[in-house]
Design goal:
With about 55 residues, this protein is an all-alpha fold. It has 2 helices and no strands. The longest helix is centred in the middle third of the chain and has 38 residues. The protein is rod-shaped and about 55 Å long.
Length: about 55
Amino acid sequence: MDKMKGKAKEAVGKVTGDRRAESEGKTDQAKGDAKDAADQLRERAKGVGDSMKRDDR
């Protein structure tokens, strides 16, 4: 969601010449990327934990 909002804000900023909106859009996109990376890391850690549980049986 942050990535989509950021792309839209960046595009509006470019069209209107509003550098602040453009910058905020880029920041929102970076937040979205960070959230995605954290989610992926969380899923990988869960997978590792699940595989360790299976090996202990």
